């Protein structure tokens, strides 16, 4: 890490603290050359392998953008999308891998999106899982209805 003041190539860590969410570390540093102090934030890298083979950094904003399209016209707020993106990132990071396929991210989105809004879930699933016929929609709706029936049964007991 170069000093932002004098561009010296070394610095000394004075203090380290974990962020509130536990996903990053804030380090307070001091340059041995000029004595300037500055902060850095360190996170574990998480890379996404796209279908084309291109590798890029994971982005919550991209998750939110993709889900936002499925949620158009639905009662879903930006805060809801941010919470969903955070849940997806946490689930993906819990796998312990540093590179993950876009397909796995899509699977990680489906569960939280289903809980958030079932219509948005159907929209997203229809594109993500490449629904080709009405039967594909019927199957997905039948699974949702079965889940509703199970929940209602549990609530009666």
UniProtKB/TrEMBL annotation:
Q: What keywords does the record list, in alphabetical order?
A: ATP-binding, DNA-binding, Metal-binding, Nucleotide-binding, Repressor, Transcription, Transcription regulation, Zinc, Zinc-finger
Example GO BP: negative regulation of DNA-templated transcription
Residues annotated as domain ATP-cone: 46-136
Task: Describe cofactor binding as the record notes it.
Answer: Binds 1 zinc ion.
Q: Does the keyword Lyase apply?
A: no
Q: Where is the composition biased (Basic and acidic residues)?
A: 7-20
Q: Where is this region: Disordered?
A: 1-20
User: Which cofactors does this protein require?
Assistant: Zn(2+)
- Name one molecular function that GO assigns to this entry: ATP binding
ZnF (unnamed) residues: 3-34
Its job: Negatively regulates transcription of bacterial ribonucleotide reductase nrd genes and operons by binding to NrdR-boxes.
Query: Which family does the similarity line name?
Result: Belongs to the NrdR family.
- Write down what this protein is called: Transcriptional repressor NrdR
Organism (species) = Microbacterium oleivorans
Q: Which gene encodes it?
A: nrdR
